[in-house]
Amino acid sequence: MKPSFAPALLALCAFLFSQIPSALAAPNILVDLADDAGYADFGYQIGGINGDFNGLTPNIDSIATGGVKFSNGYASCSVCCPSRAGLMTGRYQNRYGMEVNLGSELNAGLPTTEKTMANTLNALGYRTYALGKWWLPRR
Fold this sequence. Notes:
The protein has helices at 6-19, 43-46, 58-66, 80-89, 117-123. By secondary structure, the chain is an all-alpha fold.
């Protein structure tokens, strides 16, 4: 199993926060998780050195070229719920019972004892928001 990139993301965020003088506003952080996407499904991945993205994904391409791009991040699971849990906590999700996609099991979901990226950012004064498909209930 390949490692999750969430710990590296959290470490980078912590480093960036330590470098920002208190008089400046903290940077905006956007984490975009897309399910079932391959490496070549986004224009910025296949554009080559000339930057011609062929209009495949223009909005995503503009975010990738104008921000920070993590090119060696890997999902910690092959299905969505455990992969999201690994990203949000920075931990291998099988260590807290998130090995499979959630079904109708009672007691399913992300344990409330797990600290998430949102918890860390809230403690630093950020407001957080989740939008879109989630499928990661807390238990």
